[in-house]
Design brief:
The complex is a heterodimer of chains A (about 550) and B (about 280). Chain A has about 550 residues and is of the alpha+beta class. Chain A has three domains: about 20-100; about 150-250, Beta Barrel (Periplasmic binding protein-like II); about 300-540, Orthogonal Bundle (MetI-like fold), CATH 1.10.3720.10. Helix content of chain A is about 55%, strand content about 15%. Chain A is built from 19 helices and 15 strands. In chain A, a hairpin with a 2-residue loop joins strand 9 (about 230) and strand 10. Chain B has helices spanning about 1-30, 50-55, 60-90, 95-110, 115-130, 140-160, 165-175, 180-190, 190-210, 210-215, 225-235, 240-270. Chain B has twelve helices and no strands. Helices cover about 75% and strands about 0% of the residues of chain B. By secondary structure, chain B is mainly α. The radius of gyration of chain B is 23 Å and the shape is globular. Classes of the chains: A alpha+beta (about 550), B mainly alpha (about 280).
């Protein structure tokens, strides 16, 4: 690419006073024109300098970003870096007035952290991915065989030393009979030389490996217990922290029948559901990820076990968002109106105090509110002399989350309403008064419509925000209280907290279904945003 | 006169509603016992025991520093990036402009943390190659937050840019300035209110963000206030309440400080649309 010199050529600089448009065109494309550029108009030197800096910066970042990818042999990664670098070079070295110069950073950030995750989520929604269905079929088979390893009488035994290499766990295994040392990882077993043996025949040191102290090893006990070193027809597993044994796999995959055999049972591969099932219907816990088409998306609507929840949660979610917007706006406007009086005193103090909740960190105050609603030692019960389990029954819990959000949200509405009230011309109200309008009529026909006009965009964005107000519910009630027969849907659950629990809850992760529901949530919010945007634009045109 | 008294009564009631929980937090912070069931509305004594305990038994200042760095960087950078994009959308006419604006609106409607599984996959890959931007790193989370905020901010700022007369930058262009100069010297200074308000909103949203931080910043040195303070209550909900209250009050300081600092720019920007939670 030729790096053109950025003087009078740029279409963006119409009518440059030096009139150099024609003159400079001869020097276009020559970087050597830097000296002349000083005379052709302000900013040219700076522009050239900026372009050189941009070139250096882009190339530097690209090299830095590509280095680890190249050494890891990641072709796709290198390709992406190359494409992005080429785009950046084209955009920033071009002398033309490209909108892309301003749009590129935003575009890249959105692509990486918003668009790609959304597309990925959509692709997950078409699979059964989740606990027990995380990897490929090969990985599932390996996991099945490894976890079926049982010790048999007379099998080989080793002295175990737990070590690590580059953070990964390694079993240093000593065969006391033959005085040989092996290093075992999840990839397999290999013999090592240069090991030092200690008393009892254990390896105490080996080149390239860091031996863990007993305390360190104990801390990683779970990891040690689950590591199995594959060997022919079985695997080596730890028994405690100092011994290991070689066991035989009791289950084995047979490619001929595409099934897992063990004992006298057979589990056949079910490629539709991504698991091995026995004729009696039992399935092995380790499955693999398969595409399930639209099943997750339709399940959210048609599966009676899920859709009753889904619709119930959706209805409450809608009510919650509308109620929060309505309540916060009502209280905010009311408070602003109360203080809006020429003879009112102490307005500044009231205002400062009323706005205080807005300054407090919301996440912390949500937790404080949760504890204020506590039955036994919560402030609410103590102040009111009650003994109500606020967050324990559906109705009070719903009232509580609404109250909390009212507290958090109304100061902002108050602030905006206060500002808007001051812009309403007093003449309007005086004229109405002269015409004999009552105070209520003046409020209803003049003040309120003008206030709503100012608040409209805020009401829309508040609705969109509260529709997905994860913290507002999760930190206060965690979605609860839950009915005793169904721990998946609580009374205060919003779609977003419900989805979150589906994906990360105690019942086992169901990323596929959770992704399908997040797509629905997304569609709902997107429609609301676009509709809201249309509406506020309509409001603006009114004005 | 009766009307005025009623106004005061109503104002006092609203003020009490707004202030009581905060008073409770202040009392809990000062309370010498420092547990939830000992906390009252009126403190029974005042001491700094909770504060001392918070500073000595937890890495509170590390959390504090992390939160400030993450929120400050996110606010500054996302406003900068959004202002650039907003300028292009407001002043340039190019193919795909409308489509770009609409897709911004549609894309940003996706709540970022719903995609936390894909995001985790992305960041695991980033960690393998560029640990400076990976999991447990401030920069990685900052980039992620900017990606989640930039759509909203671009819209907000673009709306304000549209209200700045185009004749102003046309005049600059006629005088021989480049677009970049018109942007820097005319549009940006005039847009100070909206830049301030969107910076403030991003700052507040980021310092309050809990979910992504709790997944991406788990290392002892990387935790933010939201994650750290949440952990305090998760460990010992009753016993740590006093420490938690101190932490809450100290967390309010940067928000108030940023608000105070930006206040002179904010008067006009305030109505531009924002929520809190």
């Amino acid at each position: 690419m030729t790096v053109t010199h950025g003087s009078g050529l740029r279409p963006g600089r119409h009518g440059s006073p030096s009139g150099s448009g024609g003159a400079a065109s001869g020097g276009g494309g020559a970087r050597s024109g830097a000296g002349r550029s000083r005379t052709t108009g302000p900013g040219s030197t700076a522009a050239t300098l900026g372009r050189v800096l941009a070139l250096g910066l882009i190339v530097g970042v690209a090299l830095w970003a590509a280095a680890p990818l190249v050494s890891a042999g990641n072709r796709l990664g290198v390709g992406i870096v190359a494409v992005v670098t080429a785009a950046a070079l084209y955009v920033y070295l071009s002398p033309r007035r490209l909108p892309a110069k301003y749009l590129l950073p935003t575009t890249l950030l959105l692509l990486a952290f918003q668009v790609f995750p959304v597309l990925y989520t959509m692709s997950l929604a078409l699979t059964n991915v989740g606990d027990g269905h995380l990897g490929t079929k090969q990985e599932a088979i390996a996991a099945i065989e490894a976890s079926s390893v049982r010790r048999e009488a007379g099998s080989a035994e080793y002295r175990l030393t737990v070590a690590e290499q580059g953070g990964a766990l390694v079993f240093l295994l000593a065969d006391p009979a033959r005085r040989r040392a092996y290093a075992g990882t999840a990839d397999g077993l290999r013999e090592i030389g240069g090991a030092t043996f200690g008393p009892g025949g254990r390896v105490t040191a080996a080149d390239g490996y860091t031996v863990l102290t007993p305390a360190q090893a104990a801390a990683r006990g779970e990891e040690i217990g689950s590591l199995s070193v594959p060997v022919d027809g079985g695997a080596i597993r730890a028994q405690g922290l100092t011994r290991a044994y070689e066991g035989r796999a009791t289950l084995a995959y047979d490619a001929d029948c595409d099934c897992v055999k063990g004992g006298n049972r057979v589990w056949r591969a079910d490629d539709e559901h991504g698991r091995f099932t026995a004729p009696d219907g039992g399935a092995l816990p380790q499955g693999w990820k398969v595409g399930v088409g639209w099943a997750n998306l339709t399940a959210a609507v048609t599966n009676p076990k899920i859709n009753t929840h889904f619709l119930g949660v959706f209805a409450w979610n809608l009510f919650y968002a509308v109620a929060v917007v309505g309540l916060t706006a009502a209280l905010g406007v009311a408070a602003a109106l109360v203080l809006h009086h020429p003879r009112m005193r102490g307005v500044r103090i009231y205002r400062t105090l009323i706005v205080l909740p807005y300054a407090m960190p919301a996440f912390a105050m949500l937790l404080v509110w949760r504890d204020m609603f506590n039955t036994d030692f919560g402030l609410v019960n103590r102040l009111l002399g009650l003994d109500v389990d606020w967050l324990g029954t559906p109705l009070t819990a719903r009232a509580s989350v609404l109250l909390v959000q009212l507290w958090l949200g109304f100061p902002y509405m108050f602030l905006v309403a206060t500002g808007a009230l001051q812009t309403i011309p007093a003449e309007y109200l005086e004229a109405a008064q002269v015409d004999g309008a009552s105070a209520w009529q003046r409020f209803r026909t003049i003040t309120l419509p003008l206030l709503l006009l100012a608040l409209a965009p805020l009401l829309v964005s508040s609705f969109a925000f509260n529709f997905n107000n994860f913290n507002g519910v999760f930190l206060v009630t965690a979605g609860g209280p839950f009915p005793s027969d169904n721990p998946t849907v609580g009374a205060t659950d919003l779609l977003i907290t419900y989805t979150f629990r589906l994906a990360f809850g105690q019942q086992g992760a169901q990323y596929g279904l959770a992704s399908a529901i997040s797509i629905y949530v997304y569609l709902i919010v997107a429609v609301i945003s676009v509709a809201g945007f249309r509406r506020t634009r309509a409001f603006k045109e009114v004005r | 006169m009766r009307g005025l008294a009623a106004r005061h009564a109503a104002a006092v009631a609203v003020t009490a509603f707004a202030v009581l929980p905060i008073v409770f937090v202040v009392s809990a912070a000062l309370d010498p016992i420092g547990t939830l069931n000992s906390a009252t509305l009126v403190p029974r004594g005042a001491g700094f025991g909770n504060a001392v305990k918070l500073f000595t038994t937890t890495p509170f200042w590390t959390w504090y520093r992390n939160s400030l760095v993450v929120s400050g960087l996110t606010a500054a950078l996302s406003v900068a990036v959004s202002a650039l994009a907003a300028y292009a959308f407001s002043r340039f006419r190019f193919a795909g402009r409308r489509a770009g604006l609409v897709s911004l609106l549609v894309i940003q409607a996706f709540p970022q943390f719903l995609a936390i599984v894909p995001l985790y996959v992305i960041f695991s890959a980033i960690s393998d190659n560029w640990p400076e931007f990976g999991l447990d790193s401030v920069w990685g989370v900052v980039l992620l937050y900017i990606g989640g905020q930039v759509g909203v901010n671009t819209w907000l700022i673009k709306g304000f840019f549209d209200s700045i007369p185009k004749e102003l930058d046309d005049a600059m262009l006629i005088d021989g300035c480049s677009h970049t100069q018109a942007f820097r010297r005319v549009v940006l200074p005039l847009a100070a209110p909206v830049l301030a308000i969107s910076g403030l909103l991003v700052f507040i949203a980021t310092i309050n963000e809990f979910l992504i931080a709790s997944v991406f910043l788990t290392g002892d040195d990387a935790r933010t206030l939201a994650v750290g303070l949440f952990g305090l209550l998760a460990d010992q909900r009753n016993a740590n309440f006093g420490m938690f209250a101190v932490g809450t009050l100290l967390t309010a300081i940067p928000t108030v400080a940023v608000f105070q600092f930006l206040q002179r720019y904010i008067v006009h920007g305030l109505t531009a649309g924002a929520v809190k939670g």
